[in-house]
């Protein structure tokens, strides 16, 4: 509901609103008023799924200058930049995996690598299909493995995989999520797909 903001450890609430959060002036200047997510990786602060000039840019990312969390204006002396990496898709989550940063959309998985130079990042679609992230907050970063809830199974991805995989014992254990369960003394309905943001990994 509020614009992207920053908080410096130790800052105290001030002003009429007694607010310790400070809006990011560069994003205000760019008329970026909302963001679906943010990740910090290799010294870069990266916002994704943002609203700019009142238009939602669901498949776009914008990153600040190296080691400068609030500097987003592009210039010859800055590494700040932006890219549309998933046309017609919505970026839901992001987390590092090995030497890459993975972006998960509602339809695909995109791998970002740091290349430097004018491009700064290289974005490569690793996978597109039905085993993509379904529930935004279900992504689990296990360090060397990411796991998430898809449409009908729990999927995993390591840095050596070229597509999502399933792990048999997890698929069996997670069956109750998608199918519900009926026992002698209790029954549970399947997952409520209309309450996606209640799912937490």
Word description of this protein:
The chain is mainly beta and 201 residues long. It is 8% helix and 41% strand. It has helices at residues 25-29, 168-173, 175-179, and strands at residues 5-6, 22-23, 32-41, 44-52, 55-63, 81-84, 91-97, 100-105, 108-116, 120-128, 140-141, 145-149, 154-158, 181-182, 187-188. The strands form 5 sheets. It has a 4-stranded antiparallel β-sheet. It has a 4-stranded antiparallel β-sheet with strand order 7-8-9-10, with no helix packed on it. Strands 11-12-13 form a 3-stranded antiparallel β-sheet, with no helix packed on it. A hairpin with a 3-residue loop joins strand 11 and strand 12. It is globular. The protein starts with a strand and ends in a 13-residue tail after the last strand.
């Amino acid at each position: 509901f509020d614009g992207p903001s920053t908080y410096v450890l130790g800052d105290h609430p001030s002003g009429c609103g007694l607010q310790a959060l400070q809006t990011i002036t560069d994003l205000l200047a760019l008329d970026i008023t909302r963001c679906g997510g943010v990740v910090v990786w290799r010294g870069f602060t990266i916002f994704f799924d943002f609203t700019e000039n009142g238009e939602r840019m669901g498949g776009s990312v914008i990153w600040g200058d190296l080691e400068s969390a609030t500097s987003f204006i592009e210039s010859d002396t800055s590494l700040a930049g932006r890219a549309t990496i998933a046309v017609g898709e919505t970026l839901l989550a992001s987390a590092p995996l090995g030497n890459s940063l993975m972006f998960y959309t509602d339809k695909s998985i995109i791998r970002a690598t740091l290349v430097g130079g004018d491009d700064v990042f290289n974005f490569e679609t690793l996978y597109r299909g039905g085993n993509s992230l379904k529930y935004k907050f279900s992504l689990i970063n296990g360090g060397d493995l990411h796991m998430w809830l898809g449409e009908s199974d729990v999927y995993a991805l390591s840095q050596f995989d070229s597509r999502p995989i399933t792990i048999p014992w997890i698929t069996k254990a997670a069956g109750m999520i998608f199918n519900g369960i009926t026992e002698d003394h209790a029954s549970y309905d399947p997952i409520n797909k209309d309450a996606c943001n209640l799912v937490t990994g």
